[in-house]
Amino acid sequence: MTNTKHTESDHIPDVGKKVLNEALETAESVEELRAEIIRLKAALAESERRELSTPDESVREAMDESGFWKSCSGCHETNEGASTGWYSFHPFFNCEQGSGCGECGGLGVIWDDTDYEDMVNWMQEQEALKGGE
Question: Closest Cα to residue 47, out of 89, 95, 15?
Fold first, then answer.
């Protein structure tokens, strides 16, 4: 039975180890090394954040074909439906994201899969039925 000693670097992904080794090779002082490590950690965190926020193909397909995200009316401030500018536009949801509430479950946006064309057709049929009475 082999006794394996684990080090702090065991949890760092291989790409992170490679980047840290490159920083060690190119840094001329400890201060430069620290600054480079901080910069690289920030770049890695940004890269991971982008990867997590990029939807896969099936999500994109659903967003393109069967609905859209809209700002939650429960937590998104509007003035008669118009934006107040209080919340920022979120590129993933393609709308302004609210602060989160019970209506949206904390996400700040709601998925709307209403078939508005079907709704208009139904409303026109109802109007025609009322006109025929």
Answer: 15
